[in-house]
């Protein structure tokens, strides 16, 4: 009787050990699956952040190129406006000179007419 109780006890212990071993294996598999899922989830975020950073780097380089081009174009426009302004000043100077010459010619013409009239009267 004692030996049958011992055998029964050993059988239950063996069954419990087997059950515990199965549960341990299932827990290890579940932990491994969970770890893989977490790592995959984190990797997706990291990969997305990396792609965003690459896109931002590319766009910042494009923006820098555009800014440089815009600065050059702005300098060219400023030079053109400055040249145009200078030409307008010169035109104003020429117009002023022409008016001065015209006034001088009118004065000379008036003087000649007066001299002619005085010469005819005498």
UniProtKB/TrEMBL annotation:
Any Gene Ontology CC annotation: BLOC-1 complex
Coiled coil: none
A single BP term in Gene Ontology: endosomal transport
Annotated spans, Disordered: 1-24
InterPro entries given in the database record: BLOC1S1
Family membership noted in the UniProt record: Belongs to the BLOC1S1 family.
Full protein name: Biogenesis of lysosome-related organelles complex 1 subunit 1
Gene: bloc1s1
């Amino acid at each position: 009787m004692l030996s049958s109780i011992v055998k029964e006890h050993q059988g239950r212990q063996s069954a419990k050990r087997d059950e515990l071993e199965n549960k341990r294996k299932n827990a290890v598999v579940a932990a491994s699956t969970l770890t893989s899922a977490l790592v995959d989830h984190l990797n997706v975020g990291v990969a997305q952040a990396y792609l965003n950073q690459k896109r931002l780097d590319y766009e910042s380089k494009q923006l820098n190129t555009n800014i440089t081009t815009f600065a050059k174009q702005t300098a060219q426009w400023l030079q053109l406006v400055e040249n145009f302004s200078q030409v307008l000043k010169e035109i104003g100077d020429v117009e002023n000179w022409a008016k001065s010459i015209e006034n001088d010619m009118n004065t000379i013409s008036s003087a000649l007419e007066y001299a002619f009239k005085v010469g005819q009267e005498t």
